[in-house]
Specification:
single chain; alpha/beta; 8-stranded parallel beta sheet; 10 helices
Length: 450
C-alpha cells in the first residue's frame, strides 16, 4: 500500500510538473508577448517563388504572367505538372537569400510554401505536387531557408494559399457574377461539386500541420485568399496552430475577422492604426519573377515607404521574386543594399518604435520611443526645408537633447507659442532621409487621443 502511495505521489509530481512546464511556455502566451518581436521588427522580406518563376512571366509569347501563370495562361493541370518536372533552380542558395534580407535590415522572411497553383515548395508527405516528387530539384528549399534563418537570426515564416488551390478538385472560390472566376474551371469545371471541407481535410490542414512540425519555429503563418473559408473553418485552423506553435503569429487572411494583424496589399493607409498591421508590396509590378517587368520602385521610394509605414504603426513586408534558377534579381538586391545601408545608420528610428504622435508632415515623418518616462522623437526629413527650419506644432515639452542621428551632431531647437522649431544644417546629410533625434521630457499626447 505504501509503495502504491509513493508511486502515485511520484507520478503526480512528475506528470504535474511536465504539464505545468508545457502550459507555461505553451498555451498561456499573451497576444502582446506573441506580437512583440514582430512589432519591433517592422521590416520583412516576402518571397514569391515557385514553378511559375521558371517562365519568368512568359508563356507562348505572352509576357505578363507571373505567380498566376497556370491560371492566366490557362494551362491544364497535367501540362503544368509536366512543366513543373523541368523546374530545377540549381543556383538556389539559402545563405545568399537570407544574407540579402539581413543586410537590408529585414528581421523576418515570409516565403511561399504553396501558392494558388497548389505546388508545395517543400517536402510534403501529404500531396505529390511538390518540389521533391514533382520537380527536378529534389531538395527542400524551405528546410534550407529555415536553417539559414536560424543561423543568421531572422524569423522564418511561411505563406500558404488557403482558399485557392488549382491542383485540388475540391477548392471552390467565390462567385463574381455567375462565374467562379478564381477557380480551376479547366480541369474541374463543375464548381458546385467542389466541397471545400474535403480539400481542407485532405490537403490544407495536413500541410499546415507539416509546416508547423517539420521546419522549427514558424514566426508567422501568412495565409492568403481565404475565399470561401468560413469563420468556423478558419478558427479551427487557428486552434491547430495555437496548439502546435502558440507563439506563431497568424495574419488576417486565415478567415473572416480572424488573425493577429491586418494586411494592406500594395498600399499604405493614410492614417495611423493602433492595431497591428502590415503593408506588403512588390518592388516592381509583379510578385512572382517577370523578366519583362522593369518598372522598379526606387531605393528612395522604398526607404520612404519603410519610414511612412513605421510612422503609422505598421510593418513593411517587401517582396522579391527570384528567378527559375533560384537567383534574386540584381535590381532587387541592389535596392535592398541601399535600404540596408540607410538602416545601418538610422535603424534606431525604425526598430522598436511606435507610431507618430503627430499628423504627417509635408517635410517627412516621425516615429517615437518611450524612455525613462521621457519621449524620443525621430523626425525623418524627406524634403529639406529651404529655410533650414522644421516646425513641429503642439510640442510644448521641454527639449532635453536634439541631434542628427547619423553623426550625433547637436542641433539647436527653440520653442514658439505654436510649437517647436528645429534648426537644421544648410543641406541634408542624407539625401534619402535625414533623421533628427529629439528627446523631450514626459510624453506627447498622440493624435488618436485628441
Ligand atoms: C494575392 C495573390 O493572389 C497574389 O498572387 C499575391 O500572392 C498577393 C500577395 O496576394 O493577391 C491579393 C490578395 C488580396 C487582395 C489583393 C490581391 N486584396 O485583399 O485586396
Amino acid at each position: 500500500m505504501e509503495k502504491l502511495k509513493n508511486f502515485i505521489l511520484l507520478f503526480v509530481l512528475v506528470f504535474g510538473s511536465v504539464k505545468a512546464q508545457n502550459t507555461s511556455d505553451s498555451t498561456d502566451i499573451t497576444q502582446e508577448q506573441r506580437m512583440e518581436w514582430w512589432q519591433d521588427a517592422r521590416f520583412g522580406m516576402f518571397i514569391h517563388w515557385g514553378v511559375y518563376s521558371k517562365a519568368g512571366g512568359e508563356w507562348k509569347g505572352e509576357t505578363n504572367h507571373a505567380e498566376w501563370l497556370q491560371f492566366t495562361a490557362k494551362i491544364p493541370l497535367q501540362e503544368y505538372k509536366e512543366y513543373a518536372k523541368t523546374f530545377n533552380p540549381i543556383k538556389f542558395d539559402a545563405k545568399e537569400w537570407v544574407s540579402i534580407a539581413k543586410n537590408a535590415g529585414m528581421k523576418y522572411i515570409v516565403v511561399t510554401s504553396k501558392h494558388h497553383d497548389g505546388f508545395a515548395m517543400y517536402n510534403s508527405q501529404v500531396n505529390d505536387h511538390n518540389i521533391i516528387k514533382g520537380s527536378s530539384f529534389h531538395r527542400d528549399p524551405l528546410k534550407e531557408l529555415a536553417e539559414e534563418c536560424k543561423k543568421q537570426g531572422l524569423r522564418f515564416c511561411v505563406y500558404y494559399s488557403l482558399g485557392r488551390d488549382w491542383e485540388d478538385p475540391d477548392c471552390p472560390t467565390g462567385y463574381a457574377g455567375n462565374i467562379a472566376w478564381r477557380s480551376n474551371l479547366i480541369d474541374y469545371p463543375i464548381e458546385k461539386d467542389k466541397k471545400l471541407q474535403r480539400y481542407l481535410d485532405r490537403k490544407a490542414i495536413p500541410q499546415i500541420k507539416e509546416l508547423l512540425t517539420n521546419y522549427g519555429d514558424i514566426g508567422v503563418m501568412w495565409f492568403d485568399t481565404y475565399e470561401l473559408v468560413s469563420k468556423q473553418q478558419g478558427q479551427k485552423i487557428v486552434d491547430i496552430i495555437r496548439e502546435l506553435q502558440p507563439k506563431c503569429i497568424i495574419n488576417s487572411r486565415v478567415g473572416p475577422c480572424l488573425g493577429d494583424y491586418t494586411v494592406n496589399e500594395q498600399e499604405v493607409p493614410e492614417g495611423i492604426s493602433i492595431k497591428p498591421w502590415e503593408s506588403c508590396m512588390t518592388m516592381n509590378n509583379h510578385w512572382g519573377y517577370n523578366k519583362a517587368d522593369d518598372n522598379w520602385r526606387t531605393s528612395e521610394e522604398l526607404v520612404h515607404h519603410l519610414i511612412d509605414i513605421a510612422s503609422k504603426g505598421g510593418n513593411f513586408l517587401l517582396n522579391v521574386g527570384p528567378t527559375g534558377e533560384g537567383v534574386i534579381p540584381t535590381e532587387s538586391a541592389e535596392r535592398l543594399k541601399v535600404v540596408g545601408d540607410w538602416i545601418k545608420v538610422n535603424g534606431e528610428a525604425i526598430y522598436g518604435t511606435t507610431f507618430s504622435p503627430f499628423e504627417k508632415f509635408v517635410w517627412g515623418r516621425c516615429t517615437q520611443k518611450k524612455e525613462n518616462g521621457n519621449t524620443i522623437l525621430y523626425f525623418s526629413v524627406f524634403n529639406w526645408p529651404e529655410n533650414g527650419e522644421l516646425i513641429v506644432p503642439e510640442v510644448h515639452n521641454k527639449v532635453m537633447k536634439s541631434s542628427l542621428l547619423d553623426s550625433g551632431k547637436q542641433i539647436k531647437t527653440h520653442s514658439l507659442d505654436n510649437g517647436l522649431v528645429i534648426k537644421l544644417p544648410n543641406s541634408a546629410p542624407d539625401p534619402l532621409a535625414t533623421v533628427v533625434k529629439v528627446v523631450v521630457e514626459g510624453v506627447i499626447d498622440d493624435p488618436s487621443s485628441k
